Amino acid sequence: MMCRSPQALRLLARVLDELGIGQDCCLSAQEAIELLAKGNYSALVLDFDLPGGAQVAKLARLAPAQQRPVIFAMIGASTDIASTYQAGANFVLYKPLELDQISRSLRAARGFMGDDRRCSPRHKVETVVYLMFGKSLAIPALMLDLNEGGLSVQAADPLPTIGQVPVHFLLPGSTRAIEGTAEVIWVDDSGRAGMFFSYLPPATQRRLRSWLSRRGKRSPARAVRGSETRVAFPALQS
């Protein structure tokens, strides 16, 4: 279903069951596309080392913003990670899969899946974000928008396509910095990038949630009706 590895399937199903996420399965890229056309899926898991994986991801990214699934790409050592993100992957799962890796990635993406993802409004925020690439390289970028799960930024130059990056920024009207770690999920040639928060200290999460709540009361977001959280598992075969 997911791939040709029964062990990988068992690990993924175990974590999804723990999170209460339903699963649909198919055996080809064509079936995956048909499922996506018929249903409102919150996530899509693709083996990028099998034919058709990148093409399905690209098609999924063409959906309207509120209907786009979170895309997990399963890749091997020889797969180019930059091309994986360019195809539309939000999270990467490295093969052979391990339970801890799957659990961290799925839990990090959980807030963007289903009702939670669709009802988490993005707020336009004008502030500077400092992205720490390595021990000495701090790249400043302008924040474009922000919610509890992540942010998008605009840098002067294209940003490196790496996974985890420490972030540091001040919210308007606040004197205490938000510091944590974010996962870069997409970049483009203009310097724009989107990130999911992969770790924020509990106290920082509360401060961010409180700040967003106060801002939301000033600028109420339009509610979007969600649907049941489900994940499509295309097993892409040649």
Structure summary:
This protein is of the alpha/beta class and 238 residues long. It has helices at 6-18, 29-38, 53-60, 81-86, 99-109, 114-118, 202-218, and strands at 22-26, 43-47, 70-75, 91-94, 123-124, 128-133, 137-147, 150-155, 164-169, 178-187, 192-199, 230-234.
Strand % is: 25-35%
Main sheet specs = 6 strands, antiparallel, barrel
Number of helices: 7
Placed side by side, the strands forming the largest sheet appear as 6-7-8-11-10-9
Q: Which spans of ≥5 residues are poorly predicted at pLDDT below 50?
A: 115-119, 219-228
What can you tell me about this protein's structure?
By secondary structure, this protein is of the alpha/beta class. The protein has 2 domains: about 5-120, Response regulator (Rossmann fold), CATH 3.40.50.2300; about 125-215, Beta Barrel (Thrombin, subunit H), CATH 2.40.10.220. The chain contains 7 helices and 12 strands. The protein has helices at about 5-20, 30-40, 55-60, 80-85, 100-110, 115-120, 200-220, and strands at about 20-25, 45, 70-75, 90-95, 125, 130-135, 135-145, 150-155, 165-170, 180-185, 190-200, 230-235. The protein has a 6-stranded antiparallel beta barrel. Strand 2 (about 45), helix 3 (about 55-60) and strand 3 (about 70-75) form a beta-alpha-beta unit. Helix 1 (about 5-20) packs across helix 5 and helix 2 (about 30-40) packs parallel to helix 3. The protein starts with 5 loop residues before the first helix and ends with a strand.
